[in-house]
Amino acid sequence: MTDLDVSVIRRAVGAGPTSKLDEVEVFSQIDSTNSYLLQHAAPKPGRFRVAIADHQTAGRGRHDRSWQSSPGSGLCLSLSYTFTEPPNNLPNLTLSLGVGAVNALSGLGISGVSLKWPNDIVALHGKLGGMLTELRSGASVTVVAGIGMNVNLPEELDFGTENHWAHRAVDLKSIEADPPSREVLAGAIVEHLFATFVQFDELGFDRFVDEWRKHDWLQGRVITVDMPDRQITGVAAGIDADGALLVDTAEGQTSVRSGSITMASMTGHDR
Length: 271
What we know:
- By secondary structure, the protein is of the alpha+beta class.
- The chain has two domains: 6-212, BirA Bifunctional Protein, domain 2 (2-Layer Sandwich), CATH 3.30.930.10; 219-264, Roll (SH3 type barrels).
- The protein has seven helices and twelve strands.
- A seven-stranded mixed beta sheet has the order 1-2-3-7-6-5-4. A five-stranded antiparallel beta sheet has the order 11-10-9-8-12, with no helix packed on it.
- A hairpin with a 4-residue loop joins strand 8 (222-226) and strand 9.
- Helix 1 crosses helix 6 and helix 4 packs across helix 6.
- It is globular.
């Protein structure tokens, strides 16, 4: 049985989004909240459903990398949303959802949170959380967005293989002495992610690009990027209007649309 109270989560989401919410399901343990929603019926256009778990046994990050967490130590949450019209620039939805996650935390009084291109949530130069968006096949465009966030970690934790750029995992307890309950946290994240989906549906990435740049943790840092065909090292120079990572190298500026950051200096434009 889970310690998470679904009624508290629903109240924390707020009346507006709740009117569009088909279902919230809470599990003590599940293989993956993303996988669960991908296997179930898609919401109707403009509506959404949510799955939340105390513990995932097969949580995933980008490129099928693992996301490890101890039971009760974090929040594993996925939201399934069906767009009213096929959106443009769908790959940038993950960046937009990152802005929604930061705004959710800010609304709870949690500051000092940044974003690392393309899908990591950063605090104190460590990985606070990560996101994964997956497209569901069908007549309509349905996206399942998953977010894993560390809340109160045990002292020793292996949180996956996608962490070479970070010197440690970070939890909310490290940056906020009295963090909100996981129910309140879940409600705020659901509310803001749903709002992000709706705004992306209407306005696309243009609505989020400037705000994402304000939270850019990589800006000014020396980074190494593994790309599909090569590896580059240079200084992160923000993102362009289409969400590509810009890297200043000895050969000039390069746009990265697909790749993984394998190393990032701890010096740069710190927040």
